[in-house]
Amino acid sequence: MFKRLIPLIAFLSAPGFALAADLPSHKAPPPVFVPPPIFTWTGVYVGGQIGYGWGNDRMSVPAFFAAPTTSPEGVVGGAHIGYNYQVNQFVLGVEGDVDGTSISKNIFDPLTGTTFGTRIPVEGSVRGRIGVAWDRALFYATGGAAFADLQKSYTVGSFPFFGGAGPFYLQNSQGRVGWTVGGGVEYAITNNWSVRGEYRYTDFGHQTDVVTAAAPVDHHEVEHAVRVGFSYKFEMYAPPPPVVAKY
Predict the structure, then answer these.
(1) CATH of 59-233, one of 3.30.70, 3.80.10, 2.40.160, 1.10.3720
(2) What is the pLDDT confidence band of residue 169, given thresholds at 50, 70 and 90?
(3) Is the pLDDT of residue 12 over 50?
(4) Three state DSSP letters for the chain
(5) Higher pLDDT, 205 or 130
(6) Is the pLDDT confidence value at 10 over 90?
């Protein structure tokens, strides 16, 4: 019996059989967990916003003791682009935006027999931003230069205004540079998409329209505006490559 087992033992001990036993497994490697990239506010972003603006156009006419004040209001909406840089909890950035608006108002002044019109078809700003981040929430203040196309119109009836001139219609458009300050809160829904709410106060300074040499009109326009918006942040850092287990 033992003599019959000797050939079988020799076969199992042969190099070919040992090699077959050492063939690699065809099973898939176990999945490797790759942690998601750490969130940061750092990066270039673009987005859009929409809101509502209101304010005052305080007018003064040196030829008269009083002048009307209009209260223009309307919808604002447009696009923005910016860059943030985060250091620990602090976020510094710069942002520019441009809005088309329906802000306008006409008012009739019985003292002068004139209809004064105010309109802001387009406005924009370039601002700095500074904020404090709590994970995905960013509370920030902002301020900088503001720009606008301010359009003023005058419809004068048969009244001794502007040195007795009338009736006539005049429209004047001026590009103005002022300043704006405000603040808001932004929340990152994902590592790329965020939503925001913001309030800003803007002062466009003084604008003088020389309707006639006898009665120039000085305007001082200020604006309040609230906006909501969204942004898409581009990744500045590539996520780490997945780890592949080798067998």
Answers:
(1) 2.40.160
(2) confident
(3) no
(4) CHHHHHHHHHHHCCHHHHHHHCCCCCCCCCCCCCCCCCCCCCEEEEEEEEEEEEEEEEEECCCCCCCCEECCEEEEEEEEEEEEEEECCEEEEEEEEEEEEEEEEEEEECCCCEEEEEEEEEEEEEEEEEEEEECCEEEEEEEEEEEEEEEEEEEECCCCECCCECCEEEEEEEEEEEEEEEEEEEEECCCCEEEEEEEEEEEEEEEEECCCCCCCEEEEEEEEEEEEEEEEECCCCCCCCCCCCCC
(5) 130
(6) no
